[in-house]
């Protein structure tokens, strides 16, 4: 009986939490087709700022949990700067073979990292939380790159 209550309470908290999310927009020069682009992400309003609640695919220098400042343009919230770093890091991985993605995501999860798949089927974004040693992740990334499985880019590395 207690377990059911916890599951219902957790579900209710997630629903309540989702209602508080706001879409924010990041301008970037890393569009897949080249040039300028806009990436949207979910964020949680905290006072006058927003806490990023997505792993970004294209915008650089921001990571999950970062607190950002925005300005309203034509009714949309555009990010204009970083207020406080979260300690998370973000990397992007571009795969040579789509068949490698599932196993790689499982391995990254075992190492303590979450990931999301892009609308481009061979691109994933990876969140490296502050409690995960980046050197371990970097070694894994470099090995896969040397083996020709993927290339990777450090989009935002926590200081």
Provide structural commentary.
With 159 residues, this protein is an alpha+beta fold. The chain is 26% helix and 38% strand. Strands 1-2-3-4-5 form a 5-stranded mixed barrel. The protein has 2 domains: 2-84, no CATH class; 89-156, 2-Layer Sandwich (Alpha-Beta Plaits). The protein contains 3 helices and 9 strands. Strand 4 and strand 5 form a beta hairpin. 22% of the residues are buried. It starts with a helix and ends with a strand. The radius of gyration is 17 Å and the shape is globular.
Task: Produce a short descriptive summary.
This protein is an alpha+beta fold and 159 residues long. It is built from 3 helices and 9 strands.
Keywords for this entry:
5-stranded mixed β-barrel; disordered N terminus; DUF4265 domain-containing protein; 26% helix; 4-stranded antiparallel β-sheet; Alpha-Beta Plaits; alpha+beta; DUF4265; globular; 38% strand; 159 residues
Helix and strand pattern:
HEEEEEEHEEHE
Number of helices: 3
Strand content: 35-45%
User: What's the Cα radius of gyration?
Assistant: 17 Å
Ranges where pLDDT stays below 50 over 5 or more residues in a row are 1-18
**Distance N terminus to C terminus?**
45 Å
Q: Mind summarizing the main beta sheet?
A: 5 strands, mixed, barrel
Name the shape in a single word: globular
Name the helicity range: 25-40%
The largest beta-sheet arranges its strands as 1-2-3-4-5
Total of domains: 2
| Count of DSSP strands | 9
Protein name: DUF4265 domain-containing protein
InterPro entries: DUF4265
């Amino acid at each position: 009986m207690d377990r059911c209550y916890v599951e219902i309470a957790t579900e209710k908290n997630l629903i309540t939490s989702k209602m508080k999310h706001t879409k924010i927009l990041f301008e970037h020069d890393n569009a897949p087709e080249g040039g300028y682009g806009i990436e949207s992400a979910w964020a949680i309003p905290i006072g006058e700022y927003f806490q990023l609640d997505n792993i970004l695919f294209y915008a650089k220098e921001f990571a999950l949990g970062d607190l950002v400042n925005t300005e309203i343009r034509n009714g949309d919230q555009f990010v204009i700067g970083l207020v406080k770093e979260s300690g998370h890091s973000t990397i992007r991985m571009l795969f040579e073979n789509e068949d490698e993605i599932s196993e790689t995501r499982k391995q990254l999860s075992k190492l303590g990292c979450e990931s999301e798949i892009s609308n481009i089927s061979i691109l994933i974004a990876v969140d490296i939380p502050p409690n995960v040693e980046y050197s371990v992740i970097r070694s894994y990334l470099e090995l896969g790159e040397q083996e020709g499985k993927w290339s990777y880019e450090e989009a935002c590395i926590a200081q």
